[in-house]
Amino acid sequence: MVCGRPLTGGLDTWFQTLIVSSEKGKSDKAGAVLSGWKDLPLELLVRIVSLADDPRMVIVASGVCTGWRDALCLGTTNLSFSWCNLNMNNLVQSLTPKFTKIEVLSLRQNRPQLEDGAVEAVANNCHELKDLDLSRSFRLSDRSLYALSDGCPHLTRLNISGCSNFSESALAIGQNCNQLQSLNLGWCESITDKGVVCLASGCPNLRALDLCGCILITDESVIALANGCPRLKSLGLYYCQNITDKAMYSLANSRVTSKRGPTVRKSTEEKEGLANLNISQCTALTPPAVQALCDSFPGLHTCPERHSLIISGCLSLTSVHCHCAVHAHRAGRAMMSTYHAY
Ligand SMILES: [Zn+2]
């Protein structure tokens, strides 16, 4: 057991054969002998470091000796520099050429430090990257997304929320990174319909898209998503005040169309379709259009237990209800009429 968790597979075998010697590294029993820290099996080292809660552990341990450095550089798939408040830019540029097997990388910042050169270092070295968090990177330009587009074609999750310098042309990243399933573009205020349309055509597997605060987008973006991304499950449109009923009907109709489409075996999640939608402050929307959407997607809820249709700030939408809220209302009325009958 390490950190209270059971070990599995090869590590179980390691533990069974290892005997830690007390003196002179000798033992009567068969098996590998640990006579000092350098003898720690490298697979075990990688596993122990990966279990540590502190993301700095990998970097500290990689500085102990060349053996540990090589093992950690090749064995580490998950790395975070978000703890780094001062030299993130330099650290990323010097370390990413060594950690070439990284699949999950967090470069989230409390204060903006990261520059395009660091993201280019990531893109040039970490070609197996699947999940990248660049949120709050105010200093990055389109250069960063062009580099990722070329170097990291396996990206499935990308968070660039708050990166206000990206233009819509950078969303051409969707043409190369067409495995993207989750993309957070919250408060990328320069994004226009042109970029979202390009994204929708390149990324048919998109499940989650956050466009909250992308104030320039219109119905054209939502229509492109409704037509191009049939697996869309979560959509954030908070404060996108150009969005009208046309967008809601387009999403509702996409559900009808996909139901009639070819019968391919789908997971329960896929069958349910859109299950999270934030249209807070989209003040142009009217109840019939949003109700039509709610009726099309049973995963959208206005009831307090499963609240997944977020409409705060839309005072005109208070009459919109999900299926279970309507049933609860009817059941309540039936109980009341029974009570009055007595
Ligand atoms: Zn409900």
UniProtKB/TrEMBL annotation:
CDD domains: F-box_AtSKP2-like. Pfam families: DUF7885. One of its GO terms (cellular component) is cytoplasm. InterPro entries: F-box-like_dom_sf (IPR036047), F-box_LRR-repeat (IPR050648), FBXL15_LRR (IPR057207), Leu-rich_rpt_Cys-con_subtyp (IPR006553), LRR_dom_sf (IPR032675). Gene3D superfamilies: Ribonuclease Inhibitor. Residues 115-255 form the F-box/LRR-repeat protein 15-like leucin rich repeat domain. Keywords: Ubl conjugation pathway. It comes from the Eukaryota. This is F-box protein SKP2A-like protein. The lineage of its organism: Eukaryota, Viridiplantae, Streptophyta, Embryophyta, Tracheophyta.
